[in-house]
Design brief:
Length: about 90
């Protein structure tokens, strides 16, 4: 799955926390990732245990789709994940 790493400011993180429903729906974890042969820490949102999986809203899906298209990511990966979410409901 394609990944995009952003350098964010504290105000960005607060806005993302609100958008992602952190800490109620998602929690933040830190991962070590390799970017251009350099290891850096990256914060990610992970769904909390016990939360039911759901289908993304059309608005959320379209936001992610626009990101995929603007970055040249393979949208078939996104479509497959979305299709899987419909089948696991």
């Amino acid at each position: 799955m394609p990944v995009l790493v952003w350098d964010i400011q504290p105000t960005d993180e607060l806005a993302l926390d609100k958008y992602e429903g952190c800490p109620r729906f998602y929690r933040k974890e830190t991962l070590l990732v390799c970017i251009n042969s350099e290891h850096v820490e990256a914060m990610v949102y992970v769904m909390n245990s016990g939360r039911p999986l759901g289908t993304p809203s059309r608005t959320y899906f379209n936001t992610i789709l626009q990101g995929y298209l603007s970055l040249g990511f393979d949208i078939e990966i996104l479509n497959a994940v979305a299709q899987n979410s419909l089948q696991t409901r």
